[in-house]
Design a protein that fits this description.
Elements (H helix, E strand, L loop, with lengths): L3 H15 L7 H13 L4 H9 L10 H15 L7 H13 L4 H11 L9 H12 L1
Helix pairs in contact: 1-2, 1-3, 1-4, 4-5, 4-7, 5-6, 6-7
């Protein structure tokens, strides 16, 4: 289980990822609020993170890093049109989290074959599990 500091770091990272042009669209804001609730972060803390990002902390658990990568994929896919620079950013976030280059590429390649470009969690886990072994 991840601690409060790690949860705040995850959410802060997602906010930074969503803020391509220094703004959050309504759908992104609602999605991030849902993630905050899932992480048991109060709205007040979420609002604070909007203006005060916290330092990135690498998660120790490989499975938690995969879950975070999946959240970033979901966040990115809220915008129906994904630019190449967004894919590069997502790839770099995955690398920074310590996920394997090949597995990240495979996930990004497979996205195109799923409805709404959302890779189901079981496929995502299998891809990273194969790479991890």
């Amino acid at each position: 289980m991840i601690n409060r500091v790690e949860k705040l770091s995850l959410l802060s990272e997602m906010i930074a990822f969503a803020r391509i042009n220094n703004s959050l669209r309504s759908i992104e804001h609602k999605f991030l609020l849902g993630v905050a609730k899932q992480l048991e972060i109060t709205k007040e803390d979420y609002d604070y993170l909007l203006d005060n990002p916290v330092t990135h902390i690498n998660l120790k658990s490989h499975s938690e890093r995969i879950v975070q990568f999946h959240r970033l994929i979901l966040l990115m896919n809220l915008d129906k049109e994904i630019a190449d620079k967004d894919l590069v950013r997502l790839h770099n976030f995955g690398l920074r989290m310590g996920l394997g280059h090949e597995a990240i590429n495979r996930v990004l390649d497979l996205m195109e074959s799923f409805p709404d470009k959302i890779v189901p969690p079981d496929f995502l886990i299998d891809i990273f599990k194969t790479q991890y072994n």
